[in-house]
Amino acid sequence: MPLLTVGHRGVMGVEPENTLRSFVRAEREGLDVIELDLHLSKDGALVVMHDADVARTTDGAGPIGELTLAQLRALDAGHGERVPVFEEVVDAVRSPLQAEIKDRAAARVLADTIKRRELHDRVTVISFHAEALRETREHLPDIPLVLVAGRSSPTAPERARELGAGMISLELRHVDADIVGRAHAAGIKVISWTVNTDEDLARVRELGLDGVVTDMPGIRAAAGAPA
């Protein structure tokens, strides 16, 4: 069966991560879903960036939460790209989105945006943080949720079931057959990150996973091929 393919921060292996350029490229390359990360700016804008600090991915410095949207807009996020806000991504691509809450404070703002823009059928809310997913569920009772985990992957199936999450997204090196079996027995799908090589993909198929999160557009074709 073809695997679900999720473009990690767009296709960050070939484009500046979490930029409109990266998201548009991911859609053009045929990735099934586009993943992005959310923080709040100092003035409450829902900003698309992975780190809490802008230094790694822009030509600026400082925590996102201490910068206004106007200050963030002045930064170069790679190849002249600007730091986008969530609604710009919604408008730039038509693909389903996995919106990862990096800061619990962003959960309510995201929920309000999903309601206002009627995005319930297009956005899945994902997070490492159970509190963020619980708060999302309070505001959006029917929204799909994904629990993300790294070293805590062994307990993810049970935590996801308690949260009402229908999928877990786990770091590949921490996944084993027992975790996958418990998740599938509970009706929970399992995807893994970050799958960028044929070797990674072979491990995904060996484990019987449902999908992959990848930086590389070429994985899309390989994931759709027979095992």
UniProtKB/TrEMBL annotation:
Organismal lineage: Bacteria, Bacillati, Actinomycetota, Actinomycetes, Kitasatosporales
Domain GP-PDE: 3-224
Family matches, as InterPro entries: GP_PDE_dom, PLC-like_Pdiesterase_TIM-brl
GO biological process: lipid metabolic process
Gene Ontology molecular function terms on file: phosphoric diester hydrolase activity
Protein name: Glycerophosphodiester phosphodiesterase
SUPFAM superfamilies: PLC-like phosphodiesterases
